Amino acid sequence: MGAKQKGGGSKPKNQADEVEETLQAVVLADTFETRFEPFTRDKPRCLLPLANTPLIEYTLEFLANAGVEEVFLYAGAHSDQLEKYINTSKWRAPSSPFKQLTFLKSTSTSVGDVMRDLDGKHLITGDFIVVSGDVISNLPIEGALTKHRKRRETDKNAIMTMVLREAGRNHRAKSSSISPVFVIDPTKDRCLHYEEIDHHSDEHPARLNIDSDIILSTPELDIRQDLIDCSIDICTPDVLSLWSDSFDYQSPRKHYLYGVLKDYELNGKTIHTYIIKEDYAARVRNLKAYDAVSKDIVSRWAYPLCPDTNLLPGHTYSLRKGNLYQEQGVTLARSCVLGRRTVIGRGTSIGDRTTVHSTILGRNCKIGKNVQLDGAYLWDNVVIGDGSDVRGAIIADGVVVGKNCSIAQGALLSYGVKIADGVKIESGKRITRSRPDGSVGTSDPEVVGEGGEGYEFIHGEDEEEEDDISVASSGLVYRMPGLSLSNASISTLSSEVSEGSWPRSGRSSFSDGEEQDNFHHDASVSVFDSLREGTSADVVQLELVSLRMTTNASDVQVRRAVVSSFMKYIQQLMEGGKGAGEAVKEVFTKYREVVDRTLFDRKKEVKKDQVDFLLQLQQDLVHRNKGASILLFTAKELYDLELVDEEAYEQWWDDERSS
């Protein structure tokens, strides 16, 4: 074994080998956060439905596919509900892939308390996986496990491997107010520094504080702010020992990771990364992520974790055109209209002239006539009265919305709430019936109308809450502020590009930008595949035009998709052995026409399109390997091919977004 085990003496070699073959996992079912209140007043967070399947099901499915044999499930709030659910689930059945599933009730108030409690129980026998109970992933973890174990063979101090997912800096699943930054030695996949930058803090500027010794002693550094922390860690028992040694550590990243890395000279322990690019992994850590991951599942980015996989016994979802998923036993009026990316559970009925778009409906919902549902999440047994409008809201089990109501973007209606006829629930409002002690509170007619049931829930502060500000101002959409990670001594490229450069508005609902997201995904993948297959420029242009017309995409979105796909292909050519200059010249020479048809300011004095193209390049290349070199050669090639004018370079240079 790589690390000695507590409380045990030496074992015969064959016994140790046998123990090592048993892969264990710890599931943190309670994250000790309040981000999903008021829903979590009534139900444990890991049992909240995501695309009509409880969150915990996705996590346990991931562990089963990873070959985990023993699972320790740590429960916190509403542990009785979770235990009852697990005991009647397929994970307790004789056919369960787990040899052992241990349910552990905890009075802990933080992840740190859980890890110290786990250390004291002496249940861990070797390497183990730690995941949150809200992890969604189709990652085959064998690759990460193999690298972790091989590293341990040569370095006993390599105690942990974090699984991180590469994504764009403004990916919809990322936080906008807290930016996790990983400083990595790419030659060893070793994390040297970790920091969280709070964009809304008045006390600390948005900059990194990296120890100068790290910069001076490490020949090559990657400063990554484009990584999604999946909350999937491969650990050794030494990880638990360090938790026990530091009683002030509460959070896995902000405290533990930061502290262990900072104290390297004292403890000698190293933490490494495993960065995935192709597979899907995310954590439903807040309301923004709930929306983003739901869309990913429905759009099949997390395949095979899709509704028609029917993870739960008794589910009967089938896939129809336009990513429409429908269970058996659904009643649809002839004149109702079902849009793309919609899920409808069994027993649900939809009335005449009702329009449903990009919405997830659970089982036994009753939707009246002339209702508009757009970008909403309705759980089980929800009733929506005739003429009501629900956009970008989450509505829990048993909620009744009266006739001619308006539920605005980002509103949350918790279990059993009743909204009287004609009431408007404003953006970002959270309505509940439950008090903190579980009792039913006094209804407020000013909020829910006469005869309604519920009152406005005022969300308290959470020191790590990432979405309060955005929820209060714009529903569930999160602003994507530019972030300058460092000064020129750290990076030759600025990662700060103002929000105005991009099509998404921070003042839109959490369903806004969905078409833009889908266009970017579809267009960039289509163009990249065409480049890789050697498709002619004319055909690539036709595909772009077709996709653009389908989604009504803007010129900015088209340029972004072209830049993203071109840079990805250029990097692939470089990984195959070509130099940056050669790769850039090959791509832009062959596909000059594709770029040219995204620029419409040739005869204008202000080169808005060309400057935007250069900013898009700069933004994309900030975190790519050898991005500075690629940018230099690309700028030269664009000039040589007469795609970008000299005046555009001057305007780009003077633009504050490029500084």
Automatic annotation (TrEMBL):
Family: Belongs to the eIF-2B gamma/epsilon subunits family.
Domain of life: Eukaryota
Domain W2: 514-659
One function term, GO molecular function aspect: guanyl-nucleotide exchange factor activity
Region Disordered: start-end pairs: 431-451, 496-517
Entries under CDD domains matching the protein: eIF-2B_epsilon_N (cd04197), LbH_eIF2B_epsilon (cd05787), W2_eIF2B_epsilon (cd11558)
Name recorded for this polypeptide: Mannose-1-phosphate guanyltransferase
PANTHER family assigned: TRANSLATION INITIATION FACTOR EIF-2B SUBUNIT EPSILON
Family matches, as Gene3D superfamilies: 1.25.40.180, Hexapeptide repeat proteins, Spore Coat Polysaccharide Biosynthesis Protein SpsA, Chain A
Compartments (UniProt record): Cytoplasm, Cytosol
Keywords assigned: Cytoplasm, Initiation factor, Protein biosynthesis
Pfam families from the UniProt entry: LbH_EIF2B, NTP_transferase, W2
Oligomer and partners: Component of the translation initiation factor 2B (eIF2B) complex which is a heterodecamer of two sets of five different subunits: alpha, beta, gamma, delta and epsilon. Subunits alpha, beta and delta comprise a regulatory subcomplex and subunits epsilon and gamma comprise a catalytic subcomplex. Within the complex, the hexameric regulatory complex resides at the center, with the two heterodimeric catalytic subcomplexes bound on opposite sides.
Protein source organism: Penicillium subrubescens
GO cellular component: cytosol; eukaryotic translation initiation factor 2B complex
InterPro entries: ARM-type_fold (IPR016024), eIF-2B_epsilon_N (IPR035543), eIF2B_epsilon (IPR051956), LbH_EIF2B3/5 (IPR056764), NTP_transferase_dom (IPR005835), Nucleotide-diphossugar_trans (IPR029044), Trimer_LpxA-like_sf (IPR011004), W2_domain (IPR003307)
